[in-house]
Amino acid sequence: MEPPSCSGTPSIRGPTRTLSDPVRGSSLGRVSTDEVDAWMAGYLNPMKDVVQRLREIVLATDDRIEECLKWSYPTFMYRGPLATFFPSSKRHASLMFHRGQSIHGDFPHLTGNARAARTFRVASVEEAEACREELTSIVEACMTINELRR
Fold first, then answer.
1. Core-most of 23, 24, 57, 132, by most CB within 10 Å?
2. Residue 1 domain-assigned (yes or no)
3. What are the angstrom distances between the C-alpha of 25 and each of 38, 41, 97, 105, 149?
4. Is the Cα dihedral 53, 55, 60, 61 positive or negative?
5. Which pLDDT tens digits describe the chain residue by residue (150 residues)?
């Protein structure tokens, strides 16, 4: 059985392309939807490069992660929603993990006290790159959480 897509209908996701990791100089082996690329092209915010770096790190974590626009914002999916960008801040990039309260471990950039969600925040591309391992671990934990709830 195919995991749920962003829209619930795989054919709506649209064309895809391979992303590359500019830091590592290699293909991420992952595809990105044209709809998210178009959203990023129109995203006029000083944090655009930081959001793009977080996007690249999340997609590099696992080839099974999909991305799409859900709730009008770039969202990462694996057997349901993993995380969604909060794009309005001009001081940091925020990535909200939908089931962040279930993540256990020491993750200093994962904050919040909402009933379910937790937010990962960084203020620069350099900070995003320095937190690559932390973010990757959070994404992997969320993938496991989504696997267990199915």
1. 57
2. no
3. 23, 22, 28, 31, 36
4. positive
5. 333 445 432 322 344 444 444 444 443 434 457 889 999 999 999 999 999 999 999 999 999 999 999 888 999 999 999 999 998 999 999 999 998 889 888 999 999 988 889 999 999 999 999 999 999 999 999 999 999 986
